[in-house]
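Let's practice the habit of predicting before peeking. Look at the sequence and jot down your guess about where helices and strands might fall. Then scroll down.
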Amino acid sequence: MADAVKVYTDQFEAVIDRFGAPLKPWLPAIARFLLVVTFLEDSLRISTQWSDQLFYLQRHRGFPWLTAEVFLFLNVVVMTTGSIMAIAKKHTEYAVAGLAVVIVSQSLGYGLLFDSSFFLRNLSVAGGLLMLLADAMASKRKNLFAGLPSLNEADKATYLQLGGRILLVFLFLSFILAGELSFLRVAVSLVALAACVMVVVGFKAKWSAWFLVTFLSISNVVLNNFWSLHHAHPQRDFQKYDFFQTLSIIGGFLLLTNLGPGGMSMDEKKKEF
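Done guessing? Here is the structure:
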């Protein structure tokens, strides 16, 4: 059984490599853009709905007027600046730190820390940020050490990749736990769960990540089609937010397909035997 699965996955990886070859040089840039697109969309949304955001923070969260203004201003500046830096691969460490602070501050500021769906989604986005940081470290090692990487830097990247793999799959818990149970939902959830486990342990991680990218892309268009709702529909902004956040998680998985699972994975351990 294991040999049959291995043959199948090897064939699938060969197909992916063949059809993905023209895209491969552009894949890191596409992944970085997708990873931060939720922050760019959020900064644009806050800027265009400034008065509504102020009203919500003051009326429902008890923010003083000046505190709400400063909170929104800093969020917009950090999200925009951090996203541009991440895309351009400039000072990625500071970009990731700033965007991580935004995730925490918005969770607290908007009172969404204990919203399970929001919490799990943001864990996945945080996993993508860890993959972004690991990718930056890998590029830095290649540029500076020319095949002679610092052991300390290599260890850091390895742990970041492990943490990123674990956090990325939390989105699927929200998918599995939400909605009504049906045969189709259970079947799809089991397949996605198996792929998530493979990503976490680093077994055929690239194959699993590509499967999850495909799964997320299709489900995102089907479930978060905000463009089909009237602009005044109360669920439009929520679906739009989920749509762009899912794109960011897809970006994290694309970084995984490009960077690989790292040293703490079954794929890498197999090379030692």
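How did you do? The chain is about 80% helix and 0% strand.
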